[in-house]
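Troubleshooting: if your tokenizer reports a length mismatch, compare against these two reference records.
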Amino acid sequence: MGRSVMPCFRRRSFLADDADAVDDDSSAFCASLADGLRRLEESLAKDSISLKWSAEVMSLFKKMQVELLAVVKKSKLPITYGAEEDWFDQYMQETAALLDFCNVFKSAISGFNRYCMIVDLAIQILTKDAPGLIDIGEFEFERLERATGKVLDAKAVRETLGLADTITAWGNKKDEKGIAVVMLAAKTTMLVMSLLLFSALVSPISIDVGGAGINCSPPELKPCLEALVSISDKFRERFQEADTEFGSVLFEHKVMAEAARELKGQAVEAAGVERLKASSAELKRGVEVFEAMVDEVFGEVVRGRNEMLGVFRDGALGLGS
């Protein structure tokens, strides 16, 4: 049984008076995020776990970070300079964890790129030596599967799971409540979706994304949490349906591995090699699109953190003057 990453809210004054609604900007952020999550759920319901879907998740992350920064800047809330945790600490924690995951995903991408290089080499050999019998299983593709299985950053997962214990609500005022809800939505989405991608791209991990935290959550947050639970359930179904014989649950990799398996121990035919070429090209396209989105998310997060660090610095200088 995996541990839960659904938020269990520390009840401070934030939840003491639910009659006060959050501000419009915060409500709009949560509504936009929930809409994006529902689209991911619909996409996963139609298709298998794939690099295409993984790129869609990264696209959601980028949009979420852009909108999160805009809401935080517009609120102009003060930063607490002391031991007490506030919105700034939550923002820096969430973005630091997302950067860690981007780096893990980049390592996974490097593994897939090595995979594709080995496949290209195998195709060249198959094309050159077509009249003969070639055992490609023991040489090219087994090496490739072992290479992709090595990319595991347990530290990043452990630290990110620890963030689930730091999700905190604070504040009495309407704008403070709004930013608290926004940070809860962003951090929970980042936690759940990043761990799902980790399971698909790097190494399967058992994560409990139960719905226990939904009932105690602010109403603006409930659609996001419900969508995350639904996505996680659908992801688990797709994962169980996938054939893990090839070392990956990704659709693009499965298609290519099946094409390679058809050639094992058989006289190589041109049609078989062409199927391998086509499936390899599809995998490459998927990797390129996903890599581009990871880079965009990384850049957006760094930009946001730099802006917030500037705000922190200016505030600290103001206190000292």
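Reference record two:
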Amino acid sequence: MREQTDSSRGGGRRRRTRGGIQTTRRTTSTDRDRDAITPSSTSCYKAIIIRGRPMAAAASSSSTTSCSRGRTLPIIASLVPFLLLVVASCPAALASATHGHGGGGRKHAAVRANHQAVFRAGDEREAYRRIMARMARMAKDSNMTIQSPDGDVIHCVPAHLQPAFDHPMLRGQKPEDEPVERPMPKSGAAEEEEEEAGVFPQAWSDGGKRCPAGTVPIRRTTKRDVLRTSSARRFGMKARASSNARRDSTSSGHEHAVGYVTGDQFYGAKASLNVWSAKVASAAEFSLSQIWVISGSFGNDLNTIEAGWQVSPELYGDSNPRFFTYWTTDAYQETGCYNLHCSGFVQTNNRIAIGAAISPTSVYNGRQFDISLLIWKDPHRGNWWLQLGSGPLVGYWPSLLFTHLGGHANMVQFGGEVVNSRPSGSHTPTQMGSGHFPREGFNRAAYFRNVQVVDGDNSLVPAAALRLVADHPGCYDIQGAYNRAWGNYFYYGGPGRNVHCP
């Protein structure tokens, strides 16, 4: 990550700090393990799970009675059938007592009933069990556990035991060696100042924490994470896209402000984008900024590779911007997932946790912090690698995952996306980027700079034919330009609902 100053955009010299950050060390807490997925235990009174929180089911009584010592055996014998009846009806009594304490009890009962109904179906129940088993195994295989100040728990898992190698075609393998040959700018292209290979600033690694060599950091999934979703089977996946929709379609409630290039053979893309804590209005919505590498038609055969930052309360349970990856081979239908939630992306880096929060972030009218992302296809092995600027490699998407991207991409896209669930019939106030329009410029609007693509010679070239499109400019807009320092760049984003976006 790099701090951007006003002189950066005008072609002047840039001020750099080592590692690109100036941060205040945080104090680590050690008491956040309560939501971890662990095998549940059974007892006489079972716990009711409401959004990941166990609520003990217990009956209350207004008074207690004691047996009189003068009672005769026949009287005791006559009470036995009554006692058996009470014991048999105990679960109903417990449920009545639990639900009878005001509207809060009824609300929790409704949430519980909803989750039980959702996960009762065979495929949903099996998916839920599979998620729990995978995360229990991650915890067991972990060589070290790191508590993040933001509440995340990071497991340091041996690289050959990460989820990617559960894939039938990868089982038993180990991560491949990093490619020696990496994309380089062609002579004559706008020169981007090289970034120092500092540690990517994430909350969990504050203070220099890292996983041991030979392991990879994996963010722990909690019960609460899973129960926030309406479908365990699609946990960690984007909503299905319309089968014949173009990528910039709003038919599924997704809205974009993007720059894209198409009509050629592309082997990767690179850009720097500043990071913001975008405000998301509903747990059913998200806001993200990313690079898409795309191949195939915009039907069910769509292949994509994606990386960037996102704010997603449903997926992560908070409003922190987080580093993420995604992939699909069938237009978000049944394949692919975010981060390491399924078998796919192979992580090779022990300092970067995919899905963990990025810190610090940009400040309106203040300091700007951006990250540089490079996705490219290794010309020798065919895998698609993810790199942070000119610094460390994060990992790769194996070529065997894909159909069309087994060869090359035919479209590359850069920009922002939000989900508009139209609360109360109006447009969502969920922000894209900084939540301010592009016309406000540097220090105020979100940007992509040094927008480049990788050509057939494994060279980085400017995305000179970049086209800009905003689905709803009154809600989220985009404006582009060029200068020597930033090459091809654009500002994008907006506040969502406003007088021009009812």
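Descriptive notes for reference record two:
- The chain has two domains: 86-120, 131-493.
- The helical segments are 73-88, 90-99, 102-120, 122-141, 223-227, 313-316.
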